[in-house]
Request: fold
Amino acid sequence: MTALFALATSLLWGLADFGGGLLTRRIPALTVVVVSQVLAVLVLGAVVLATGAWSEAGPQLWYAVGAGVVGPAAMLAFYKALALGPMGVVSPLGSLGVVVPVSVGLLVGDRPGLLQFAGIAVAVVGVVLAGGPELRGAPVQRRAVLLTVVAAFGFGSVMALIAEASTTVTGLFLALFVQRVTNVLVGGGALYASVKRGGRALPAGGPQVIRAALPALAFVGLADVAANGTYAIAAQQGPVTVAAVLASLYPVVTALAARGVLKERLRAVQAAGAGLALVGTVLLATG
Reply:
């Protein structure tokens, strides 16, 4: 069950990243984040009311608040790093956030077997390579590297925090709702500050572009929510180390989606990375 839910997480995150990447070509990135999360809040709010999840409110929800604060900050750092580029360096480094939940799992007593340790190592290398790292001819600003490390630590911290935010399914609905409300508040504040400094909140085509993109924005927001939920379940069902690594295969999904939809050709290093990620998955699942 751990492997199943963790792989579902990587599929959902990969598709959400792909969809978000397409949307940011037409709509400012912060606006994509805020609008998609607002739509997710509306759906989650209805689910919380329907299931009576409010009754499970408790101190553990502070983990959800923490995830809601860290998530937008990490995403903003990641977008800024991508702007400084090159993407072939920034994107693979950003996936190294898996080190955070894996370390937490080891600290709390997870002891993967030899095959699983090998699977972790192979899968992490595969994820990095699947991002298409530029190994030469790619000058990188120190600020870009620093921002990417901050983003990676943030992404990994969100995984660790959301796994601690609930112990039941209905409690998970409430935790995800609290996380997304916090996302909207933090992201909305960042968007407001950006506009005050002269940034844009609306795309060149005006509000009608956002209205036309609402179904895609809803998909991105809800896929991200669902991914957090399936990851939390995976981390509760089995070793956190296994769940975290399998859930972090999403760059492979994003690369394959780009290949299938946009007809982007996978570079040799990306194809090798996808293959290694698959080998690592098999080792983790059978270890």
Summary: The CA atoms of residues 50 and 83 lie 42 Å apart. The first helix runs from residue 2 to 23. DSSP finds 13 helices and no strands in the chain. The mean pLDDT is 83.
